[in-house]
Each structure stands twice: as C-alpha cells, then as structure tokens.
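User: My collaborator sent over this chain with a note saying "see what the structure looks like." That's all I know about it. Can you take a look?
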Amino acid sequence: MPKFTVAIVGAGLGGLLFALTLQKFASDVEFHIYESAAQLSEIGAGVNFQPRTWFIIRELGLDQELLQIAGNGERPSMAMVYRKADQKEGYTFHITTDDEAENWTFHRGELQKVFLNNLRASERIHLGKRFVSYTQPDDPTGQIEVHFQDGSTAVCDVLVGADGIKSAVRGAMYTQLADRAKGRGEEDKAVLLKSCIPASFSGVVVYRTLIKLDSSERSNGALHASNLLMLCGKHKHAVTFPIVQGRFLNIASVVTNPALSGTIYEGPWMSRASKDEVTESYKGWEPSVLDMLEKVDESGWSKWAIHAVKQLPTFVDGKVALLGDAAHAMTPHQGAGAGQVFEDAYVLGRLLGQPGVSRGNIPVLLNIYDEIRRPVAQGVAARSLKSGQLHSFIAPELDAISPNLSTNENGPTQEQLRVVADMIERLKDWRKGTTVEKDCQAAIRKLQKELGQTSLALKTETAFTSHL
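Assistant: Without extra context I'll predict from the sequence alone. Here is the result:
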C-alpha cells in the first residue's frame, strides 16, 4: 500500500528523471505520468551536463550507461574554447582548461531512451492525456482531482507540472492564485499573477542542427571535434560540441536582438529554416565557420524562438508544484537549463521519499522545495541571459562597436575581449564549491525540523483537548 500518489504531467526528460528519482528514493510512493502526446519523442538536439548534473546521474546509477553514448566518451572533461570568429582571420581569446571544464555532452533522444529503459513501471506512463485543470481538496488529507481534455479524471496527493515552457499546470496554478487574490480585493496582485502564465520572447533566435563528422576530423584533432567551441561575434554567436561519441557535431547558431526582448513573437516558436537563411547571417566570418555551415545538408535547420518564463513568485501552491521549464524556462547560454530541470526533479524526489512525509504535510514539503530550488534556478536563469549577451558582444563597454565594425576587425580589442572573458567566467562562479547534495541535505534538514515541529504541535493540541 503506497503512502500516497504523485501525478506527473509531462513525460519529457524532467518528468522521466523525477520518476526515476522517486523509483529509487521513494519506493513507497506511487507515481503516474500523464503525457499529452500520442507517442513519446524528444525534440531538440544536443545537451551538456556539468558536475552538479552529473552527480545526479551517478546517484541514479545511470552514469556508466550514459558514458557509452557521451559525445566525449568516457573523457570527463572538454575544454571550452572562445574565438572571435566574425572576421576573416579569427582568433582564440580565451580557453577554459580541461581541469576547469568538466562537461558531458549528449543527444536528447539518446538520453530519453536510457531514462525510459531504466523506468521499471512503463505501464504508469499514460499517453494521449492532455491536462486541462485540477481541483485542490479542502481537507488537508484529501486528494487532488486532475481533469484531462478527453473528459477523464485522475486523483493524486501531489500534482507535479513538468510540462515544459507552455505549461498548462502553470496556467491552472496561476489562474487559481490570481482568482484568490482578486477575491481578496487585491486587483493589482491578481494582474501580476496572471502575467506569470505566458512565457515571454527573449529576443534570441537559435538555429539548431547536427552534422556528421568524418573519421579524419575525429582523428586529426580538429578544434570543433574535441572541444566545446564558442564562436563569438557582434549580435550573434555559435556553439558547437561533439555528441554520440564524437560521431556528430551539435551546432547551435544564436542571433540576438535585445530590442525585441519582452515583445510578442510573431510566428511559430519552432519551425524549419533553410541552409541559406543561416549561412547568410555569417557572411564575413572566418572560413572555418563557413566551411562548417556548408556541411549542413539541404534539410536545413530547426529554428527556435527562445522564450523564457518570468521570475515566478512561487513554484508551489498547496499540493501542486512546478518543475523544470514549467517553473523557470531560461535562455540556453550557460548550458545549464537541463541541469536545473534535473536538480528540481532530484531534490523534490528526495524530499518526497523522506520518513514522516504523509498526505497531511505535503504542503510543508513543497514550500521547502520552493525555498531551496527557486533562488538557485532563477539565479542561473539571470546569469544565462547575461552570458548570452557577452557571447554576442552585447555589453555597455562594446555598445559603440557595430556588427560591421566587428566584422572588419575594428573592435572589440583583445583587451576588451579579455574583460569579456573575465566577466563570462565570473558568471559561472555559482558552480564552484556547490553541489546538489548540499542543497538536498539543507532541504532535508529543513523538512525534518518542520515535521518535528508539526508533530509536536499536534501532540500539544491533542493533550490540551484531552485535558479539556
């Protein structure tokens, strides 16, 4: 007999890793995953894991299996090379050495296969279930009723929205929060809460593709075949890294227009783009970049209008929690978006597996999850946005330099780029000396303290009532 039931909305990487965490650390908790798609498929291309993320992978016992499909094989580190590439003769202006740059790179589809293969209860994944709304119970020990588009319902004790940037769970949660604020006469707060539902355009468009590396590129130590390469230019940059044991190169071409940040993006958030559309954007760049772009086949690129979730005032309400992109979808410039999704999943899963957790104290647990995870994730999102601007030479010190000047080698100077590199490195300082386990243990200590106080309060109330 399970202690309680968790409903997970969304079977993406975050939802699956959360389920795997419950499977290992909360074996007395039943879970079900509800996915709107009729079949599972993972869109997107490459993703990289840093040490905080890799710790989670090791804890779940997935590391050896994933090393077999890592872009850098079993090599635990990959140098990050920064080049000024928007001119005929580009040059390297900064290198993060191997010792400082532990990264493991993967294809999202390959990750999903591994996660699914390790999920023992595949019958708990329910496809074709598009979430619509939920009803919270009045009774603290009561269950949530979840409503789906096909008219069916499910009940659970914890509802977790892992349904991505366009999260329907976030929409339902913040509609309820806004309605309650309006009912209290707090009109301004209700408007603010409603504004948290839609994600906003970041002013960034990313073109993504994969190219197959031939054996000569892999064996002769080509720069892009063995490193994480950041090709920088004014208002645009490109990131490349090997995946699938070095057989493919993941390319993300990033075009930034800060003036469009916060505006409404006209058109689909994801579409196809021709090879010519991207190549045209890189006229005047160093030949090695143009040669690489020429290797993209005629199927072209996928084009992503990057949106981000506003800084939410809470990830939880009652017995409902948001996880991953549903809570903090961010720009991709620190390569930490997937890692933050996994950290949410791991911390929440570990908390739900703690002794003493019951239907009645789930809101206490979720508030601790929010207290621990929200500042970290939102801090990384802010740093990611700033990192992207620096990768595209967008900074007050570089405002006078136009794309045309930069392409014609009239700036930024090497001294300015050294300053940029220093700023980029400082934005990554949050990774140093921190671990997910420390965050997790802090959350567990807070939970144990809260549960102890709750238990003491209940005993005191019972004794007082008996005395009366």
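A starting point for your reply to your collaborator: The first strand starts at residue 4 and ends at 9.
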